[in-house]
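Worked example (supplementary).
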Amino acid sequence: MTTHAHPADRDAPQDDRPQAAITVRIQREDFDTAREIERLSAADPNVGAVVSFTGLCRDEGGRLSALELEHYPGMAEAEIERIARDATARWPVTGLTAIHRHGKIAPGENIVLVVAASRHRAAAFQAADFLMDYLKTRAPFWKKEHLRDGGTGGWVDAREADKKAADRWSR
Amino acid sequence: MQLRYFAWVRERIGRDAETIEVPHDVATVGALIDWLSARDEAYAGAFAERDAIKVALDQEHVDHDAPLNGAREAAFFPPMTGG
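After joint prediction of all chains, the assembly is encoded as:
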């Protein structure tokens, strides 16, 4: 799909724009999506668009009882911050929040949240999309499957589709 | 140097971290993987699929040809599957 933004609707980067507020949290406990959206909406009266993405644990057709997420403490925060800073350099967002859970997560529970806020929608959509694509391929997290029949299903393999999705931003 | 292992690399090596003295002639990430693999079978098994091994030096992604350059921490892990 090709979209042609009206000039007034285009988010051209501006050199004088204020630094976007970046929040990165790695935590075991769940997060409150509505509260995170509200926080970025209220942070700046110039916000006209907020985009959020929530990634959930699937049960893969009843096969899984849980996913266990291992992470590299310290680097996980640092890497997502690097990606978020890159996103704020590419698009004029006013705020960017990324929250990633670790530990054992049951089907239907939240795994990851990305929220992007900007004056106009294009920047928020693209920054959120970019952040998720890079987070999946560069943030040090690994998923292990736990099966409903009691066994351990092994480590989830990285998907070529995720790598391709991230690669399209560097074309 | 502090070494850290994650996911199936950690499971195959049988530990999540260790501190080792790296010989001076081991100058790159790739050379470090070769040197560890020669130490015993657990490392050789963990690093057998060389292309599947990702490496971070001091918590930043690097390629296998990157110089160790006095890094304090090296981490070895499979491709990431978060999100």
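Two points are worth noting when inspecting this output. Chain B has one domain: 2-77. Strands of chain B lie at 2-5, 17-19, 54-57, 60-62, 73-77.
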